[in-house]
Amino acid sequence: MTSQVSSEAGEALLGEQRSAPAKPHHGTEKEVRRLDRVIIRFAGDSGDGMQLTGDRFTSETASFGNDLSTLPNFPAEIRAPAGTLPGVSSFQLHFADHDILTPGDAPNVLVAMNPAALKANIGDVPRGGEIIVNTDEFAKRAMAKVGYETSPLEDGSLDGYRVHPVPLTTLTVEALKDFGLSRKEAERSKNMFALGLLSWMYHRPTEGTENFLRQKFAKKPQIAEANVAAFRAGWNFGETTEDFAVSYEVAPATRAFPAGTYRNISGNLALSYGLIAAGRQADLPLYLGSYPITPASDILHELSKHKNFGVRTFQAEDEIAGIGAALGAAFGGSLAVTTTSGPGVALKSETIGLAVSLELPLLIVDIQRGGPSTGLPTKTEQADLLQAMYGRNGEAPVPVVAPRTPADCFDAAVEAARIALTYRTPVFLLSDGYLANGSEPWRVPDVGDLPDLRTLFATGPNHTLDDGTEVFWPYKRDPETLARPWAVPGTPGLEHRIGGIEKQDGTGNISYDPANHEFMVRTRQAKIDGIDVPDIEVDDPDGADTLVLGWGSTYGPITAAVRRLRVAGKPIAQTHLRHLNPFPKNLGEVLKRYEKVVIPEMNLGQLATLVRAKYLVDARSHTQVNGMPFKAEQLAAALKEAIDA
Amino acid sequence: MPEPLLHLVPKAEAQQSMKDFKSDQEVRWCPGCGDYAVLAAVQGFMPELGLAKENIVFVSGIGCSSRFPYYMNTYGMHSIHGRAPAIATGLATSRRDLSVWVVTGDGDALSIGGNHLIHALRRNVNLKILLFNNRIYGLTKGQYSPTSEVGKITKSTPMGSLDAPFNPVSLALGAEASFVARTVDSDRKHLTEVLRQAADHNGTALVEIYQNCNIFNDGAFEVLKDKDQAKEAVIRLEHGSPIRFGAEDEKGVVRDPATGDLQVVTVTPENESRILVHDAHATTPTTAFALSRLADPDTLHQTPIGVFRSVDRPVYDTLMADQLETAVERYGKGDLGQLLTGNDTWTVVG
Fold this sequence. Notes:
The structure holds 2 protein chains of 2 kinds.
Chain A: H1 11-14, E1 31-35, E2 37-45, H2 50-64, E3 67-73, E4 88-96, E5 109-112, H3 115-121, E6 130-134, H4 140-145, E7 162-166, H5 168-175, H6 183-187, H7 190-201, H8 207-216, H9 221-240, E8 246-250, E9 260-266, H10 267-282, E10 286-290, H11 297-304, E11 312-315, H12 319-331, E12 335-340, H13 342-358, E13 362-368, H14 385-390, E14 400-401, H15 408-423, E15 426-432, H16 433-437, E16 439-443, E17 463-464, E18 470-471, E19 497-499, H17 514-529, E20 546-551, H18 555-567, E21 573-577, E22 579-581, H19 587-593, E23 596-601, H20 606-615, E24 620-623, H21 632-644
Parallel strand pairs in A: 1-8, 2-5, 5-6, 6-7, 10-11, 10-12, 12-13, 13-15, 14-15, 20-21, 20-23, 23-24
Antiparallel strand pairs in A: 2-4, 3-4, 9-16, 14-22, 17-18
Helix pairs in contact in A: 2-7, 7-9, 8-9, 10-11, 10-15, 12-13, 18-21
Chain B: H1 34-49, E1 56-60, E2 75-78, H2 84-94, E3 99-105, H3 106-112, H4 114-123, E4 127-133, H5 168-174, E5 179-184, H6 188-200, E6 205-210, H7 222-225, H8 227-233, E7 234-237, E8 244-245, E9 251-255, E10 262-266, H9 286-292, E11 303-310, H10 316-331, H11 336-341, E12 345-348
Parallel strand pairs in B: 1-2, 1-3, 3-4, 4-6, 5-6, 7-11
Antiparallel strand pairs in B: 5-11, 8-9, 9-10
Helix pairs in contact in B: 1-6, 3-4, 5-9
């Protein structure tokens, strides 16, 4: 489970570093070795179905009970020119018999469906790694297209790797010759042949994939059976051919998981479920106003499927209308949400400011991607933190919540809803491309254990005038939370007007009075500053001098790096922020306890800037903006450097 | 006939008067502004609707006219520039028990908010949009607007504006609007009749209201208001009646058989049978569009007012609600526990 910091001593602390012991297997011809963890990367053309292959292998692995973490990586182009480097799509999966935290730094096994896939990925495979190549695609022209003058399969450039040359396309076509398909149609099943082969190599259960294929192609039974046949042919090929002498077992991660029912879940799916759950727990209809944008669109797709939960999804004409409709629904008493990525947030800024002024609950989900501008739509980054914090005109504070792992997107969405509803404020939920598309096992929560988010609408007057008249004041605040009443249209006697012009304290009428403006600006800020957020906890078993502080999706890599350092005898303390605005009350005190503070981020130091400004702490920033998550080993090296500095 | 959607909005328990719809806020438009007349007409018309006033919402954008909600004793939101149709869409699609009105101006609706306006119209969300058109930017003190005539001399166009104006009625018809009307601020009777028809309409109703800005564009519609000139300038559209106008009703609109376009002719016994009978419910918007092009954009001569088009077409909010109902019929009411568990789980025994 990546959502846990292991506190077990010894073996579990070794975590990601444990080497793979070999063990002979009795009773079968082929040797079976036992591994504690494996990292596989499937790579091919954008049209080769690598994401589907990876998803299926993940499902097989999840149902087998391993812990796992995935990293899909694909180009923004839907079908880049075939066989080119920009067209390569890959899916990396890390699975283990213990709890793991990242999709892994370097693959142990690379499946390369063509020369482009080999060329684009070979640099990540350490010497000694296994490479399964589809030799059918290594024709002179295809190789020349990516700059291979001679065949890497023959010129010795792959010496030092364990290469399995497999004519995947030919074998697939041969296996399907009785299906009456054209060669082109038959070739398309080669990803299932590869999946079958890998499923044999790692003893994965196959039933789920066969059921999946029959369901997916329910309307084309011939194609369904062809894919099942290709899948089985791949399995049988592994079992019979001499090239694959060894298969591997990775035992279920039974000790890593608390008891419960588990499923595999991606960040965007968990976030969607979190929103539906929040609506249910608040007893409010969920309303999504959204405009399609990578990598957030899957939330729109997912919520659109659940109309039987009373979920309304509105695909707007643009980003501004998406949040506008959501804000309108919030005024009407819905739990309102808008989903987007960085460029969309820029467009929504003015409406977020209006929501700050109207003091209505609203969730703004930002699945961050590489920027600025269009940037890297399919790659990950954490560079919208300051946009979320400050990207509006005027003093317009907005709470910010960030999930740390794919499964944590569920809890973070519920938490963001709690803040929005309790304090009547827009709230940013900052996920990112890595969390959105990555997946991991999730212990399905008991619905009865979810927090109660019910809130009360105003039903009657809340103020008595000097002359004794009972009136409704839309900006008379709750003295505890400073939240204003939520009086929805349809409530008799509470008719009122709200707007973006400065309002008089209490009455909500237009006011240009200088003292009132000063009071309202400070009160809106005080409301956000006063939000009740839990203190951060520090994981510091050794009494370290150096603290690593993270936020959002860097949790996995940071925790993996921290484990490595501790195993190597380097004490380091770790803490991770879920609440970026307001910060937990004890953050300043925690930071001051440590001699050195390091903040790794996938931006140029945005949290570090905030922390340095607010706490006057000489925090050291470690940053990476290459569109990919941190690699644990590199991060460990950077943290070691900080400790030793 | 489809069920009138107005029936979904609760009725007022007691008889209402215009006073019930006046808020306690001081009206702060310039003295003499056409907005006062529209406000009075709307406040005067509301009791006739007989809806519970807590179920009425006015949403506006930014501009002089967008202060309107503050003066209505209903629910209201004064939002941001151009976005009122989007915000109102969210409200109307999530709360079908509300009567939702949008108040906007020519800059708000046709310049910064043009996108939201056309999409609201094509979706046919159940909104009543009152577009106050004064052909000028008032709140920013007198720049030309997207409905100003070409060559308009303003602060931002000292040598005359360069861009051709929008014709809001043509634009709305092109955006698939199911209800399009035009009226004039000072003609309370006509304005009220148009409001009545708009309120009764299922779906988006766009009402263009020619409104005088006496500070920055005074007299822009004088030709339509001056009794003598109006007889020649104004064409009153009434469904089912021949389209005739003029001091002696001597002019009429006919279709040119060669081009299909509309022309104004002097009515004679020979051509009288060819005078077009206005059909607001025509299946295609072709003739309504041709009518919207009759007026001279500079002189406003031959300006039709009234309901150009009013047709029944599926309403977005209804369709959305229907899908929710269908989903429940098909899959049963959502079960959260089942959803979270999904179909592919494994169990870890502690």
